[in-house]
Specification:
Helices cover 70% and strands 4% of the residues. It is built from 22 helices and three strands. Strands 1-3-2 form a three-stranded mixed β-sheet, sandwiched between helices.
Length: 424
């Protein structure tokens, strides 16, 4: 038995040395190159480095505690306690490593100077979309780190949440931008909407509003509950619509358009609405705020290309029961005063009329090319410029040369915007 205890203690000490030394090698500059760190906007870089360094320092402190217990252990009970501490330290190391690698991968998408400038512009667009709301409501706006990745849709790791390693909450909202939508990143504003809704408590209030509002127009309880379960995604869609208008609806349509199994997918508990209804609600928002327009043609094509005969009877009933409610849903979203908005409605807070086609056409007519080249207008109207780009793309009818011209114009504006932001 004594030989077994001595052998176990030896192996425990060997593993302690391994994991403590591994923790000592976690260096921020080894995870992401100096050039990538240097292409973050200054305040973002400082905030993120402080947060990540604190995690490395906390792991180092835990390592010293583990070493001290390992060196002091003599009895079998003390050695068993050291073994438990070792396993806990190993789990914490792996969680910390996961957190560091996530941010390292995000930062390393900025190794190319041109991509880095465009991502700094995306940081600014997301931050501006949130600050326009949060500043008025008295909430601080978190800094934003955007990164480039593959896939169809964007995603967010919200600030204010604890990540894999636990510990202090993350001070940075980290948003994935897909390569195919980098030049029309209205999905970026959708993800920023998730962050704003989290901070203000909009999701919970909207969930209650949908339950009660749909019940008042004759919806049965199960249908109202389903729509209420989708509140977080509906809020983010409405946030993107309020800032960029039809551009957000057209881009959402393009992301969701796919096989019938995707367009009609309904998964109880999934916060995403059925894609078929989600696009129709976007068109209903446009009609409510702007009247007739290109969204009507988009919806006509959407419903024509995705006939309901392809869907199972349960989901078809959900869709057909929901369709008459879409105008009322749009009205509730836009016009209802909300406690989380200090008694204002979404219309009063985000002013979606500023990104109506008529307003965007007037903006372009008044400012011309300066809208995409002037430092003043790039700073004061970046979200409306994004809305205008999306509107132009939706109107161009898929003409490749015209679409290319529009996207190149947007790219140049984002490069100028990102180039003007001070790197770390």
């Amino acid at each position: 038995m004594a030989d077994l205890q001595a052998a176990a203690a030896l192996q425990t000490q060997r593993q302690i040395a391994h994991w403590v030394l591994a923790a000592s090698r976690l260096m921020l500059d080894d995870l992401a190159g100096e050039a990538a760190w240097g292409r973050l906007e200054q305040y973002l870089g400082l905030a993120l480095r402080r947060h990540l360094q604190a995690k490395v320092d906390a792991l180092a402190a835990d390592a010293q505690v583990l070493l001290a217990h390992g060196q002091a252990a003599r009895s079998p009970a003390a050695q068993a306690q050291v073994r438990r501490l070792l396993l806990a330290f190993r789990r914490q190391y792996l969680r910390t490593e996961t957190t560091l690698d996530f941010f390292a991968d995000a930062i390393n998408t900025r190794t190319n100077p041109q991509v880095a400038a465009m991502l700094r512009a995306c940081d600014s667009l997301a931050y501006r979309s949130m600050s326009q709301v949060l500043d008025e409501l008295g909430h601080p706006t978190p800094v934003v780190l955007t990164y480039l990745d593959s896939g169809a849709g964007a995603a967010i790791m919200k600030a204010g949440l604890r990540l894999w390693d636990g510990g202090a909450v993350c001070p940075v909202a980290t948003i994935k931008i897909t390569r195919h939508n980098l030049l029309r990143p209205t999905a970026l504003i959708h993800e920023a909407g998730h962050q704003a809704a989290h901070i203000t408590g909009w999701n919970d209030e909207l969930r209650t509003l949908l339950q009660h509002g749909l019940a008042q127009v004759g919806s049965h309880g199960d249908l109202a509950d389903v729509w209420a379960s989708w509140a977080s995604e509906i809020a983010a869609d409405a946030f993107a619509f309020g800032h960029t208008g039809f551009a957000s609806v057209a881009a959402l349509h393009d992301v969701l358009s796919g096989e019938p199994s995707l367009v009609f997918r309904f998964s109880p508990g999934d916060p995403h609405p059925v894609s078929y209804l989600r696009v129709q609600l976007g068109a209903a928002l446009c009609r409510h705020c702007y009247g007739a327009g290109p969204w009507d043609e988009l919806e006509l094509a959407w419903t024509g290309l995705h006939p309901l005969e392809r869907v199972d009877s349960g989901t078809r009933a959900l869709i057909t029961d929901s369709q008459p409610l879409l105008p009322e849903l749009a009205r509730l979203l836009v016009e209802t005063p909300m406690r989380c908005f200090r008694g204002r409605s979404l219309r009063e807070l985000l002013h979606p009329q500023r990104v109506s086609p008529a307003a965007l056409d007037e903006l372009q007519s008044t400012l011309g090319p300066a809208l995409f080249t002037s430092a003043h207008w790039l700073w004061t109207e970046p979200l409306r410029t994004l809305g205008l780009t999306g509107l132009q793309l939706a109107r161009c009818g898929g003409q490749p040369q015209e679409a290319k011209r529009i996207l190149e114009q947007q790219q140049q504006s984002m490069l100028r915007m990102g180039g003007a932001l001070q790197p770390a």
